[in-house]
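go over this record:
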Amino acid sequence: MIFPVYTIEMAYARMRELQDLANRSGAHQPATAERQAPKTKADRTVRGRKR
């Protein structure tokens, strides 16, 4: 039986694929300014207005 050879280059390419998928998922990215809670009373006043 012949086993396929798994090289370090193949492992590195797979690691990069997984990293790209993780970067696109957005699961680990910080919240945007719109989704963060306002920190001051002035921020709450501005964000509370209808557009």
Observations:
- The longest helix spans residues 8-25.
- Residues 31 and 37 are 10 Å apart (CA to CA).
- The chain is about 50% helix and 0% strand.
